[in-house]
Write a sequence for this structure.
């Protein structure tokens, strides 16, 4: 059997010689069989070799668990060769999860107490690599003893083993804390390094330890200063920097000790400045130390001048040709941008340059940092840069870039027009990557800026004419064209180049959108509605539009079909209502909590807060005919007069178009009255707990040029109802869309009878007294059912 | 944290783990990380974020040296660490190349274990580390010599 046992190198050669995976497996399987046999039969001379081969095979990914016991045997053997391989095997094959690992505890214990230095070293190393909590607890006393051994070789290893033990079993800190102070006085770099690491570990785990070790700050400062100023022997230096590993470790400990502690921080200030200025930065080693210094400065309570120095160092890093250093700088600056904003701002140009890095991780960092640096003074320039970047950046960064630009625009937009322009540009460049609410936001923005309607619609029209693939852009454009189509055809607008648009072109464009494969159903909805609105905005016959509606009346998509059918009905039967239904939207207040997605034009938003004077968004609701006045207006409420029979008409409820049902289904608002700019809207709430109660909020808004004063609204209901009018919010409705007046009506309907409501209004407007009496018709069924 | 060495073809040459994870989990992590690192273009920086760790890697000839460190560790000094390890290997093998590491993988481990322990640097002096290895090798040879076996025992001689 021994004869066929290969040398390790030969085995490796053979495995590498295998041409196929299958061949390799064959060789390995054969060899493993030998190895297994050899373990079984016990071949003390060669077992280390067998194990070594097994470890190689393990590294290639083949199972090797049958070697675990062999590791134990080898560790227990007195020969150094055996131990060496045995411990290596233990580190590779045994880990906490294996039951076998505890078995080596004993061997380790023996080796730690009786072995020669090298063996002690092996044992310590293994312990620190794979020692489990139980092992650590068992062996802690041994390790502690070794901390006092004369040989620095063993001591340095013992210290690091202690670090591992504390990580596994924090309670052991008590054992290892006392020796630290002594160990700090060591001259041997390895021990010093280990000790500093140990102290760092102790401090990170326990505030008490942190307190305790603050007193060593002066000593650490001294050690570091010596390192930096007087240097050390060549063997510890790396490219001219004295023991950078030690420096970095000390700096890190100082950072922890100085955090939130004035006194310690003060002690370190000078030293940090010294390190920062004296470190040679031509090579990576120096930069590593400098970087750690910067991190430390930023984290402790350092002097302001020092902080500025740190930021400047980072700025210099940014200019470094080494990509790694730039990366590190960007990451750190990002952390600092909140606390030291102005200092970081100074490096803005460099940061922006980094946007163009081919390396994705760098450009991502640069993007984040650039976005954080945008403020009101540099927003125009920055947005310019960012948009340039957006055009050429890799796809995974696009979404972030787009949202970032939009957010920045929202926060810092100098003018509305700039804001609209910016959003427009973002939509054209990266429309598919923007968030969903960008569409709604833009619509709201445009809707609210009356002076920009003409401008917006022109720009959107041109953009749309070029490209109908970017859905958010198409949606906004379609909406705009629908709303402000007349402005589009008017011809002149100072802010854009003259654009001659024919009615037919506009219709053709919208039709293209409707028919295009790229358009989503929602987009088509927008386009359909826009076409409909144009029927009132544009002059001339509407045959074309009618045709489209008829076609879509049989469209597959339910939503589109419904819309088309209803629009059709509007054309055919209710033409007289069309103008009113498709009226322009009033100016929207920004930030209203009920932003309606215009796509679902007919989806009403229930106004839940009864008394809050929020402007309701008037939907294109039906304008009710002022029906024949009922005779005898009644005064406040309690004695309702007999009412005429309801007109038995069944007008289609445009309001009943399918909306995404929201539980509880909101009752559509109703516009009941309009005259010379004064509008009256009703909004309804049926509180879920009381089915017989209906709350109506009457909202009066005034878009005319003159105030409406002495406004009084009275209501009447059928006998079976109980009505209660609450005090109105005021009796003046200021002009030009000022805050509306609201009044709450409470109606109890115990019999669930059909609701009828008559309103009487008296007010002064434009110097005239006005009195209006009318019945509110077509109250939604939900108000009383 | 852990350290991996692998070739451009995705063959693992060394793996040192300072975290307790299962074999299966380790294999998965190695595969994943190898993919990510091998996909990096030459001009990209040496750092990347992976899972919740930071990974520092450097390519020397045909081998990738990969170190995974924690969030608060200094990436630049880790680069120095990798470089120091390569220097040690170089000194020991005399102009090390990938083949040396393949055929003498256990030596590579021994050297690493003299330089790092538990994931932290034990000794910052190249001389000291190399001396320790030398001594250990001597011990090993002493072990062998009384036998005077013509066949070279077990682990290979670095004089190859």
């Amino acid at each position: 059997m021994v004869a066929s046992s290969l040398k390790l190198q030969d085995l490796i050669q053979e495995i590498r010689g295998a041409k196929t995976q299958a061949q390799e497996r064959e060789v390995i399987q054969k060899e493993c069989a030998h190895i297994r046999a050899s373990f079984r039969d016990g071949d003390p001379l060669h077992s280390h070799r067998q194990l070594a081969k097994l470890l190689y095979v393990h590294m290639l990914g083949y199972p090797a668990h049958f070697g675990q016991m062999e590791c134990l045997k080898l560790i227990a053997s007195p020969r150094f060769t055996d131990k060496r391989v045995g411990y290596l095997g233990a580190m590779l094959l045994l880990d906490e999860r294996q039951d076998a690992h505890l078995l080596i505890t004993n061997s380790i214990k023996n080796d730690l107490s009786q072995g020669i230095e090298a063996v002690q070293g092996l044992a310590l190393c293994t312990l620190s690599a794979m020692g489990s909590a139980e092992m650590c607890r068992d062996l802690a006393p041994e390790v502690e003893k070794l901390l006092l051994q004369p040989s620095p070789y063993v001591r340095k290893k013992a210290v690091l083993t202690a670090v591992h033990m504390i990580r596994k079993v924090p309670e052991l800190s008590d054992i290892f804390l006392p020796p630290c102070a002594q160990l700090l006085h060591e001259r041997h770099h390895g021990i010093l390094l280990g000790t500093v690491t140990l102290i760092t570990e102790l401090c990170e785990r326990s505030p008490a330890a942190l307190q305790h070790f603050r007193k060593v700050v002066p000593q650490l400062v001294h050690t570091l200063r010596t390192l930096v100023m007087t240097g050390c022997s060549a063997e510890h230096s790396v490219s001219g920097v004295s023991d950078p590993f030690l420096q970095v470790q000390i700096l890190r400990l100082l950072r922890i000790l100085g955090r939130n502690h004035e006194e310690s921080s003060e002690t370190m200030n000078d030293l940090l400045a010294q390190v920062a200025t004296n470190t040679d930065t031509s090579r990576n080693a120096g930069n590593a130390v400098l970087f750690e210094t910067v991190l430390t400065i930023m984290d402790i309570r350092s002097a302001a001048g020092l902080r500025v120095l740190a930021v400047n160092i980072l700025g210099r890093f940014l200019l470094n040709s080494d990509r790694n250093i730039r990366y590190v700088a960007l990451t750190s600056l990002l952390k600092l941008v909140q606390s030291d904003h102005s200092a970081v701002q100074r490096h803005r140009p460099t940061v922006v340059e980094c946007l163009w890095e081919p390396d994705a991780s760098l450009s991502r960092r640069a993007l984040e940092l650039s976005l954080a640096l945008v403020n009101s003074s540099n927003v125009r320039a920055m947005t310019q840069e960012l948009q340039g970047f957006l055009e050429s950046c890799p796809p995974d960064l696009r979404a972030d870039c787009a949202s970032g630009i939009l957010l920045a625009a929202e926060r810092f937009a100098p003018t509305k027009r700039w804001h609209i322009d910016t959003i427009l540009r973002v939509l054209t460049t990266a429309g598919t990557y923007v968030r969903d609410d960008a569409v709604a936001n833009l619509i709201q923005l445009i809707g609210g800026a009356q002076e920009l309607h003409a401008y917006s619609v022109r720009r959107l029209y041109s953009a749309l004419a070029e490209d109908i693939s970017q859905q958010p852009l198409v949606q906004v454009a379609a909406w705009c064209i629908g709303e402000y189509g007349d402005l589009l055809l008017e011809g002149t607008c100072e802010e854009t180049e003259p654009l001659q648009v024919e009615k037919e072109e506009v219709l053709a464009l919208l039709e293209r959108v409707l028919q295009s494969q790229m358009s989503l159903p929602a987009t088509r909805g927008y386009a359909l509605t826009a076409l409909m609105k144009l029927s009132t905005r544009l002059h001339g016959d509407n045959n074309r539009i009618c045709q489209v509606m008829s076609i879509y009346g049989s469209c597959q998509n339910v939503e589109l079909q419904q819309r088309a059918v209803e629009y059709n009905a509007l054309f055919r039967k209710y033409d007289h209502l069309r103008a009113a239904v498709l009226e322009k939207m009033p100016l929207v207040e920004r930030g209203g909590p009920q932003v309606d997605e215009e796509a679902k034009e007919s989806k009403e938003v229930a106004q839940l807060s009864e008394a809050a004077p929020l402007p309701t968004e008037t939907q294109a609701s039906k304008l009710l005919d002022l029906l024949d006045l009922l005779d005898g207006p009644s005064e406040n409420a309690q004695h309702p007069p007999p009412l005429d029979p309801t007109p038995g008409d069944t007008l289609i409820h445009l309001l009943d178009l399918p909306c995404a049902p929201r539980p509880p289904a909101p009752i559509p608002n109703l516009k009941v009255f309009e005259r010379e700019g004064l509008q009256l809207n009703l909004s309804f709430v049926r509180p879920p707990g009381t089915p017989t109660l209906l709350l109506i909020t009457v909202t009066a808004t005034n878009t005319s040029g003159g105030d409406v004063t002495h406004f009084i609204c009275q209501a009447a209901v059928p006998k079976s109802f109980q009505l209660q009018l609450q005090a109105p919010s005021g009796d003046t409705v200021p002009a030009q869309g000022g805050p509306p007046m609201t009044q709450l009506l409470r109606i109890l309907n115990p019999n669930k009878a059909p609701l009828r409501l008559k309103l009487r209004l008296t007010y002064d407007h434009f110097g005239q007294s006005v009195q209006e009496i009318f019945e509110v018709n077509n109250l939604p069924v939900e108000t009383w059912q | 944290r852990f350290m991996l060495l692998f070739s451009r073809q995705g063959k693992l040459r060394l793996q040192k783990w300072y975290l307790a994870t299962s074999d299966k989990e380790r294999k998965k992590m190695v595969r994943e990380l190898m993919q990510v690192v091998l996909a990096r273009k030459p001009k990209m920086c040496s750092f990347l974020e992976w899972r919740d760790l930071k990974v520092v890697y450097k390519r020397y000839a045909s081998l990738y040296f990969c170190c995974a460190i924690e969030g608060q560790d200094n990436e630049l000094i880790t680069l120095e660490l990798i470089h120091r390890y390569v220097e040690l290997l170089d000194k020991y093998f005399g102009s090390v190349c990938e083949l040396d590491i393949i055929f003498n993988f256990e030596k590579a481990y021994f050297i690493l274990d003299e330089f790092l322990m538990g994931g932290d640097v034990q000794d910052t002096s190249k001389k000291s580390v190399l001396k320790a290895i030398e001594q250990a090798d001597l011990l090993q040879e002493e072990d062998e010599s009384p036998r005077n076996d013509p066949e070279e025992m077990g682990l290979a001689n670095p004089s190859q």
